[in-house]
Each structure stands twice: as structure tokens, then as C-alpha cells.
């Protein structure tokens, strides 16, 4: 069959389209599509040349917009409608790369058929694409066909309704209308059947699928379910519909008060004792007098016990059994649990009803002392009657025994002395203390009398405490004694308990009381352990100077010892300090100058210091001028600036005698002098002028004549030297110091600095003398016209481009062709700035315009420069290696073959040799040469196999050769290169094995519920893509060997590899029954391989699996475990076919093959077979690139490779998977042991009353359980003991 785009032929029943003309396929942006699918650039539209066949669409029209493409019939469609799986053009030309003639229909397989055969119920295209149905397409339900005319073959979940393909009830079209998806809650609807067709308990409300009351949406909105515990709600009825005895509590479904939720039976049950709970109200609502324990279990309140039915709490009585203390005390006050029985506590007795315990009192009957004492402290049982013990008497209410005190009534001594020592019962019937004792502690104790106790006479005190007496009716120590540990001791120096001087002096003479402490009088010290005070002497210890000076005048305390003051010395007995005189013996300076000012210790004798003389033995006076001396220091130490001259004190140079000749003072200006040094020593900046001191030049005298100040501007002067000597650039004008011309006063008149621009001025000379090209304008220095201030306003320079300005002449004076624009000097329009802004030159606008610099020419052309022309003037010309192109007036150079040129030299310069400029002014390769890949050069036509090429026509010198994908000339698949690679020779022919294609499994009815439909429980009725009949296939996790029906449990692995080569065949030279096939050639992909409904897909699939992978494994050492292979995806990739398949191996869960080991095994098989895939006559790209991994049945293809119930969890395992119903659902699978989780349903509604309890005997026999645990514990204890005994024996033997 011939097509406009190539030749169509078949190999093994596979449709192959061989392209023999130009580039075909869909077009990119910037291109249009011709009738035959060829793409043409937009730049070639209506250019006078027919780029499309017949010139349609590019010259004659119709023309489409830039966002549309042409169908073969001329219709314009948006680009996004091309290759979207739908026939939008009407002739299917929008779905194929090479459309048929406009009068024909284009099959996806490449066939061309008459349009009248489309949708006629018969598949005329190999891939049945002429019968492809879409939602809304016309159909005929009664028309018989080969299965390819049905709606559901192409769009699952559709049927022919009213002669139109429509979605089944419960399904709706997706957004783009190419598939039917299940209706979900929230989708639009028109009738109830649309919703409940696949979702029970739903209806159409307000044109939207919603759940019926009281149902709520499932997760994912794919169905409705009754409310469960914890679901949101608004009314109690919503919860009770799903769970009886429930209510809506705070917007959430919960069990009624007094009920709990049984998670195993999924019902609300009446709470009983021992059931779980959250609050005590949950328990007390169902069982009175119960509460919720901390462990979350209902228990009876303390004082109550559970009845056998666990629905009643009875109050305990005396005599009832008990376990804990509060079991009794909470029920009967005053009772306790003793010996597992409720009994009254000791000290209590019961009433006749055993419901109360009463506390005993004095006078009540008893048997033991404890019967009384546990109720009434300090009571005993005497003669079977409770009485108070000795020393105690009963209270008014007979509930207490009170202890006797002094003065309480008594009958005999034992009533008192049993509780109060040293007491007795007097003849008056009262408890009293014995003689010599007094009552204390609130009359509860008798003790011996001591200090501070009350008394009436001295004998009561000193009888028991020596040196004490009765003072103010209280026992106290005599004067001179102090209280120590309740005894009286004689006071000593240091005692800290005195209040008056007598407290100390009565015990120690010459002592006083100071700050409550006994001390010796001032000047005296304690001796004989503080019992005596004597007068201090020099050398005695002390703490303050007063201790010494009070005993010895002119003494003080030094380092805690009494010593004479400075300038004094001690007599022989240490009782007197004598003052020192001049010429007395001394050891240090302080011995002298502390009593005689201006003296010191010199050679062990007190002498006057230097500068002083002896006035008398106790006085040193300072020396004066004209008095005798021997050294300079004799004068200088008493009078500064003096010295000894001729053994007489005199002033130094620059000084004169002060008042009373007692000092030397500085000379003043105007004082007589002999030399400059005499004046300069006393007044800075002075000199001796005409025998008098005066200021030097540049300085002036202040009024008191003590200082010379430097002159400043505006000070008085007489000559220029008076000013210039003090301030540079100044002179004397009219008796005042003034700055010279060009300078101004600064720093408060101490400086004359050079004027700058913008300084104040009076005349032009003030400015011009300081700054050239400046003048005085409005009392301020400014630059002349055409100049601008710079160098911090110290100079004026000519204005240049970019300087600030005010008027035009500011710029144009020295910068021709310029203006003042926006207060800035700028060049005229059409002129540019050069030479650092000092020139404005005209800008060239095109080549050959005059210029001065290269940069000017960049405006004319970026590749131009300024150079001298033949005429001798400079103009803009093209730089090397560019040429001036006259038609565009630009600088141009050819870059590749096909570019513009004027002479052949233009092309050869950059492109190289073998290029000429043809008559059309185009750079063209010479004969026997063609443009290289980048078109920047020409290469020679190849003459041998392997030479470089870009297209098949480049290999014309070698017969039967083509340009291969590696851009080299190679022989086609029917030929092989000769020994010298100069030509191609005929290849040998090989045979091709037949590809088996057959359906596996028993025919079945997919709508039937008869178990005999697929009798094997491990199979299910399944629809196979591209087939009319449905067949029984193994369920997921199981598979059968080829041509066998037994389903085996398998472990599944995912494998991916790329097929790059296949045996080349040519049907144009022979018949289909006897194909001519040759060696392996690059694999060629055709579009039908990607369509599962085509025969081409089924053929390549069987070649890969049955002939390829199956044969590869059946001839290996894993043949006994190999079951089958299954193709997942076939995808077109560059130079090959990307294949993904599943490998099924018999399940041995204790011998699971790791994916990496299986990958290594497959690589080994393919390496040994030279990359050949079994007997498929296909080769893979690289065995080491094969990928093997565990297949996740739960996630891949949205779980279609698992058969878990939608209400179950799917758990991926090593090489397999497992199912488990979710917690809230019940597992009713056929075999829950081997294949659980396949059928999960909502648990049936159950009542709170268990039918098995109809006899009333529902309670758990806890006593048997406890007995069993005890027996088990005993056996365990015996076993552990025996084991310890045996081990101990073994250790002893060792």
C-alpha cells in the first residue's frame, strides 16, 4: 500500500511505516503545516515559492493564525487539539504525523482508507482507529462487528445509548471528555439513579449527589456510610441510625450516659462494674454508688461491694467480708477491715443492727484496758467499767480524762504525785507543791526555788543560792555579784552584766560600769585575772591613746603599747615624757620637727634644716636677702630664685628683691636692665631696649607690664614690622594691622589666608591677586565667564562637558558647539564629547561620514573604525575582517554557507576553502563538497563506508548506503560493506521464528455471579484490552505458565531495559510467507506500538515476553521457579524501545531472591547470549543498564495489581503484598487464613443484649481464672526453685 508520506508493509503481522520523504511530524512554534504534514517556516509564507505541495497553505491559502495549524482538509484548529487522542479534523489528520490525501481518512497505523469506511462497524485500519469511539460519537447497539466497534473498547464504562456513546449510569465524562470517571459526592446530577447506581444510600439533591439521611460521605467522597463513634453530628437520630444507645454530644457521636463503646462488637453496651469508663457519671448512671477508677474501670464506691450480676453496689455492714481498710470505714463510721471482716475499731462498740459503731465513754462496760484507752486517753478498765487512771479525773461529758494540776481537788497523795513530782495532797483536799518548791508551767510542775523566783525574805533565796537576797519580792544576786547559770558569782573586769558603777566598784576598786561592762578607770589597767585595777606606765599594753595620756601626759598608744609622743622621751621609771630641744639627742627626723618646726635629726642631734637659722633652742627662722650664708641652698631653700653670692643671699638674674627682703620676684616691663636675658627670664617675648625691659617686634605690652601679647589684625601699630612680625602677609595701615591685598583675616585675626572663590571682597584686585581668572562681583569672589572653580575653590579652570553652568556663554566661551542645558554644559544635538570633555565633535550617522576617533564610528556601525580614506580625510570605514555592504550600508562578513556575499573572497576569508560566491550572491560549497554540520565550512563528499555525512544523498558514491545516526555512511540493513569499504555487498538471508499470539484462560461472562463462571477460586473473570471475549485470569499475586491453566502463587519483580536492535526484513522483494530478513539493524518504532488495542502492540508484546524473556529463563537454571512475564509499558525513546515488564517467580517465602541478585543473573544471561533477548530476534542496548527492583502492587497503577478490598489496607512485602481489613470493617473473605482482606464489609448492627446470655448466666467465672493463675504461679515457683537448687549443686561440684 502506498501513502503520500512513505511505504507501509508488515513484518510478523506488525504494521511498519517507513518514511522516505522529507521531515514529517508535528510543527513547532514559528512553523505552518502542509497537507502532507511537512513543516515550513513562517518566513516562507507567501514568498513566491511553493514550499508546501501544490503551494497550498503557504502560498494560495487558506492561511491560519499563528496559534493554529492546518488539518489535511484545510481546516484550522488550535495547536493544542493536535495529537490529543480525538479526531478533531474529521479525517484524523490531527492525530498522525503523515496525513493521507484530504479525501481519505488517516489511520493511526499509517493506513489510508476512504472516509465512507469510517464508523461503519468494521475495522478497516490495522489498529481499528477508524472505528474509535469517543463520548458523544454515533453508534449502533445492534450492529455486529469484530469487537472494535463497541463504545467501551475505546472508552471504558461507556455504552451505546440512543445511538450515541455515553457514560454508564454512575459515571460522568472527565474534564476533557475522553474518559468516564465514577460519579462522586458533590458531582452534578439530574436524577437519583445517577448517584445511587454505584454509591448506595445516595440521591440527587439540588442537582448534586448527596448522602441520604442519616449517612455521611466516606473518605474520598466515593460513597456513604452510617455514622460511627466519634463522627461529627447535629442530632441524636443521626448517631442512633448507625449505633443504638448513642447520642450527639458536643457535635460528636458518643454513647449515652451509662453506656460504653465495645470496639470489638462496635456497639454501645450498658456499663457494668468492671467495664471501661471515662467519668464517674458514666458508671453512676448505670450502677448507683459506683465511680470511675483512675485505671478507667467502673468500681463500687468505697463502703460498697459489687453484686454478682455486676449491676448493683450493696452497702457493707459489720460482719461483711472486706479487702481494704476503707471498704468498711466508708460504710460504717468507726469500723475497720480486720481479718477480712468489717469490725468496729478498738474503743468502739456496735449496735444491734450492725450498722453503727459508737465510741466508748467513762462508766461504760469493758473487758480490756484497750477498750477504754483507745476511746478515752488515760483511762483503764477496772471491774469491767471504764474509769480514769491515777492522776486524772473525768470531764463533764465523760468523754475525756483530764490531768490534775496544783490546787485541783484530791483524796490521797497518789492523785497528785502520780502526775506532778514533789507534790502532795494537803489536808484541805488540794494538790500542793512540797516545801522549798514552787508550781510552774500552768500549775502542772513543781520545781526547786531559784533566782528570779518570787520571795518574801532573804533566807528563801540564799538558802538555795549563795550570795543572793530577796529584792523587791524576787530572788536576785547581791551588789557586786552577777547571775551565772542561776548562781551568783563575784564580778570581774570585762563582765557584761552591770547596770551601775556600784555593780563593779563593790567588787573591784577603781572600776566603773561602761556600756553594761565592768572596766578599769581611764589610765588604769586590770591585773590578777581582772580582779584588781592599777595605774598604767610607759611600755604597758593599751587599746586607745587615752589609756596612756590619762596616766602619763604627752604619751599615746602606739601598736597597743603606751609610748611618748613624737618629740618627747621617757624618764627612767617610765612615769613621765620630756619634750626635746635643739641640740638634743635624736634618732629620726620626727623626733625633732614634730616639736620644733623646720628642724631635723642631723648626725644624732636636732638641727635647723637648710635655709633656716637658730632663733632659740625651740625655734628655727628662715634666712633673708643680705644675710650670711655659706651655700646656695642656705638661701634657695627659704627664698625661691635666690643664691649665695659672696657669703650673702642675693636674687638670681631676672629677679629683684621682694618686700622685707624675704623673697625674689620677677622683673616687670619698664624695670631697668643690662641684658636681654634679664628681661626674657621674667617676661616671655621681651628684650632689654635702652636699659629698660620692653616687648619684641610683633608683640605689645599689657597694662600691668607683666606679659607681652602677640599682635593680631586690627591691633594698633606704628610700623609694618609691628604687624608682619606677628601675622604673615600683614602690614600697618593707618595705625592698624591689616592683611595685604589677596589675603583676608582668619582665626580671630591671628592669620592672613589667601582668598578663595566665594570669599568676601571689595575690589577685583582682592580676588585676582589670589585666584587667577577671578573677579569681585557683589562683594564676593567669582570666576570669570567661561571658567569654573576647582581645587576646593582655590583656582579657576575652563569649563568642560558636564560642568555646571547658568548661561550659554559659561559653556560656549571655551567649548564650541555646546549649550547650557538643565544647568549643565552639554554638546549640541548630533555632537558628542571627546578629549576629556574639552571638545564637542559631530556624530557620524552612517559609513563614510567624517570622524576624528574610532569611538565616534560605533554610532554608524559597531564594526566600523575611523581611518583615512584615499582622498586623505578621515571617515568611518569597516574594520578588518568586515566589508561594507552597500545594500544595507552596514559592516558585514559571511558566517556560514548560504550567507550573502559579493565576491568569493568574502566567503573564503572566514569559512575557508572550497567555498565560492555564486551568481545569486550566496556563499555555496564547490562541486563534490557539502556544508558541514555547523555550516561554517565545506567537507568533501565521502568515497568510502564510514565517511562523514549529514544526509543520505551525501553517500551517493557508495551504492546501497545511507547516512546512519552516527553521521557516517553505512550500508543499509540488506547490505554489508566490502573489504575496502568502497561499496556495499548483498547480505545473507536468515529465517524468522513465528510469534505466537493466543488468548489464555477459559471464556467467561463478566456480569455473571454464577460460581461456575470461573470455578477456580484463584481466578476471576477479566476483560482484556483489544479482545471481544472476557476470560478467566489468575487473581493478583498468582500467575500461570504459558499454555497452562493452573494458578501458582508468585513473587513479582519489576524489570526495565531498552531494545535498540532487531532483525531487518524487506517484504517488498518477496511474499509475507517467505520474508527476506537480514542481520540486526537499528530498531524502528511505529506509533501502533503505543496503542494496546492494535495487533502491532500485541505482536511486539508477545515477541518480548513469550519469545524473549520466557525463552531466556526457561533455558536457564531458574527454569523450575520461572512462571511467566507480563508487559507493562512500551515507550518510544531515542534509537530504541523502552520496555517495562513484570517477572513472576514461584513464591518460596523462605527463599526470596533479592532484586540485586536477580539483576546480576539476568545480566549474566544476556551477556552470554550477545545481548539477544531469547528467541525474539531483538537485542537490548546494554545488559548492565538493566534495572530490577521489587514491584509495589499496592501503589503501581493505583493498586490495580492487587485485589485488596477498597475497605482494606494493602501492605507491600518483599516481592509480594498482603491485605488486611481496616479496623472498622469485618473480613468476610473466602479464605481469611491464606488470602485475607479481599472482602471487607461494614459490621452488622447488633443489640446490646447478647443472645448467648438469654439464660441469664453471663458473668465471667473470675474465681476459676484466679485459681488457674494461682496454680500456674505455684508451678512456676517450684520450677524456679528446682532450677536454682540444681545450679547450686553444679557450682559446689566445681
Automatic annotation (TrEMBL):
Organism of provenance: Potamilus streckersoni
Membrane spanning stretches: 1264-1285
InterPro entries, A to Z: EGF, EGF-like_Ca-bd_dom, EGF_Ca-bd_CS, LDL_receptor-like_sf, LDrepeatLR_classA_rpt
Keywords associated with the record: Disulfide bond, Membrane, Signal, Transmembrane, Transmembrane helix
Domain EGF-like calcium-binding: 720-753, 1190-1241
The protein's name: Uncharacterized protein
Disulfide bonds: 27-39, 34-52, 64-76, 71-89, 100-112, 107-125
PROSITE patterns in alphabetical order: EGF_CA, LDLRA_2
Superkingdom assignment: Eukaryota
Source species taxonomy: Eukaryota, Metazoa, Spiralia, Lophotrochozoa, Mollusca
